[in-house]
Amino acid sequence: MDKITSFTIDHIKLQPGVYVSRKDKIGDGVITTFDIRMTSPNEEPVMNNAELHTMEHLAATFLRNHKEYGSKTLYWGPMGCRTGNYLLLNGDFQSSDIVPLMIETFEFIRDFEGEVPGASAKDCGNYLDMNLGMAKYLAKKYLDEVLYDITPDRLVYPE
């Protein structure tokens, strides 16, 4: 079998950023998959499931309700390696196109107060596995260390 594209990225050189992972043509349209890399693979500790799960609920809710991107948002979810998240948007986008959207998303997570949307037994299959405090901490860290002053090398996968 051929190696899938995400396994061809040099994870030793990869740093936190916003990357186009792939683009898929569907009919006349394009689905853009983004790698929202929050930690440095194989260098930093991975994120725990509870905070990733909380971020998933908050980011998915925020993005699907966004006035511009809500109808374009197909999916937001954690990577199995727990170093970031994937975002799938309907449309042909570049990494730089969504930096403002990611800033809005992570500010929403950082500033969120109250009950996490969908965090109930009726709405979620693992509703007790949430950690809002750590989700907020990690959102702030990603904003401060990556998004607010993102550089071009954090928008394109390393060679």
Topology, element by element:
Blueprint: E1 17-26, E2 29-37, H1 49-64, E3 73-78, E4 84-90, H2 99-111, H3 132-147
Q: Can you walk me through this structure?
A:
The chain contains 3 helices and 4 strands; from the N terminus they run ββαββαα. Strands 1-2-4-3 form a 4-stranded antiparallel beta sheet. The radius of gyration is 15 Å and the shape is globular. The model has no long low-confidence stretch (mean pLDDT 96). By secondary structure, the chain is α+β, with helices and mostly antiparallel strands. The longest helix has 16 residues, at 49-64.
Keywords:
159 residues; four-stranded antiparallel β-sheet; alpha+beta
Tell me the helix content: 25-40%
Low-confidence stretches: none
* Gyration radius from CA atoms, angstroms: 15 Å
> How far is the first residue's CA from the last residue's CA?
23 Å
Strand content: 15-25%
Question: Order of helices and strands, N to C?
Answer: EEHEEHH
The helix/strand class is: alpha+beta
Instruction: Return the average pLDDT rounded to an integer.
Output: 96
Gross morphology is globular
Number of helices: 3
Largest sheet: 4 strands, antiparallel
Number of strands: 4
Which sequence of strands runs across the widest sheet? 1-2-4-3
